[in-house]
Amino acid sequence: MSSVKRKILVLSGKGGVGKSTFTAQLGWAFAADENVQTGIMDVDICGPSIPTILGIASEQVHASSSGWSPVYVQDNLGVMSVGFMLPSAKDAIMWRGPKKNGLISQFLKDVDWGDLDYLVVDTPPGTSDEHLSIVQYLKESGIDGAVVITTPQEVALQDVRREIDFCNKVGIRVLGLVENMSGFVCPNCKTESQIFKPSTGGGRRLAQDMGVEFLGAVPLDPRIGKSADYGVSFLDEYPESPASIAYLDIIDKIKQQLGDV
Amino acid sequence: MNVVEDTPVSRRLRSVKHIVIVCSGKGGVGKSSVSTQLALSLRASSPTARVGILDVDLTGPSIPRMLGLDGHPVHQSSDGWVPVYADGSAARLACMSVGFLLKKKEDSVVWRGPKKNAMIRQFLSDVRWGELDYLVIDTPPGTSDEHLSLVEHMAPVHARISAVLVTTPQAVALLDAMKCLSFTRATSIPVLGLVENMSGYVCPCCGEVSNVFSTGGGEEMARREGLTFLGSLPVDTELVTLLDAAEAESPEELAALPEGGSRRSFGLLERYERTPTAPLFKKIADRILERLASVQQAPSTS
To answer: Which domain holds residue A254?
Structure first.
């Protein structure tokens, strides 16, 4: 891991808020500069979505003398996920913690990542084995920070408070909070409505209360989910959409937080 | 007949007729919302039905919030933990969650597998549910420690377990739903059927239906896999708001309450029944009841 400059975790506490989609956009955005080497590591062992979202679901991992070789989306964007190692996408991975920890350790030690400018780690929901292990294994070489994703409703914010509490407990810097699925513009009448109502002030208020940076809000756009299902980059497909503009603005802020601008 | 193993869990669950596990593989598809609605609907299905809801999402418990029970403490009695009753003195909707055991709501539960396993065993063996017609179990995403622990500890009552799968229509969620289905098959748990959640969103301004997370994927999966399709539910902002903002009582009010009780009349159920989703979910609950009857014979109360 000494050949990796920046290590960023994407966390959320709650499931289905857009961690993997955000991870993929972040990876694509970093790799848009062809001189920047980027890696994405998916440690959601039981529900790996990264291969589908990046359009490489049918790929297999290859082993070489220097370890496992990541799957490359493009020359400067390598990906590792348990999804590449299953005989069938339908199979459930019924593993308890220790086995998951073993695989995460292998992802870090035995994958031939090469020299990376950024390694973005996508995590499963919660604060359990996967999270403890990744923090533990990366502690030595240092984690640059975590991006925390939420949706606006209180049920999600509750879990996100716990996730930020976790970051504080284990000493990970929170780069900032992203509010996803924030408002929906009807394609017919162009009126914006709140699908997931921020009944307690949403992500902005939570960021304020917990003293973390609010990175921005991304509106809900059905084309984001569709792009994920088809494995294409939303940022490339719809660069002019409000969601893309929000994403890019957030990514700029993350770079600022890291001091990489 | 198999010899039924006698364990603390089997003794405790002897008085529970049906155990329904709600699972999904993917997070954020509405497991907790479906679990809550299922519990409310089952409670309403007969004037005497007694329902329990157990939240085994240990690192992200949502059930207390959804039932308006945030901040309730759990009491210990000589006969185990007293569940929190969402309907107060009627005591027909009992709830247990790790959320009740936390001091502050933003406290994280950072536990590895073995500790989660121990907690689940305790939930199954030490909660004083009493006689229950239905125990609904809300699970976290995935197919890992919590799920394996549930199945393992409930092995003696395996014949009374069944599962409801929840998915959203997009491909990424269906992929995880398939994994969840593989899990139920590997553990021989009968699947009552599949619910497609967040299927379309009606614009409150013009009524246009947008398929925010695609549509039809769940129904298609049910057909392909030979599962009963229980129904699809659109995104209902009234329901989201109801389950999100269900107010918890203030600490002073809580202190004045009798053990494990809640003073409010069961307003949540009344308000729930006025949401656009309630009549749709009623049909789903009816199908679940039909399926339960065909999958499991109600055991004699011996």
So the answer is: 4-258
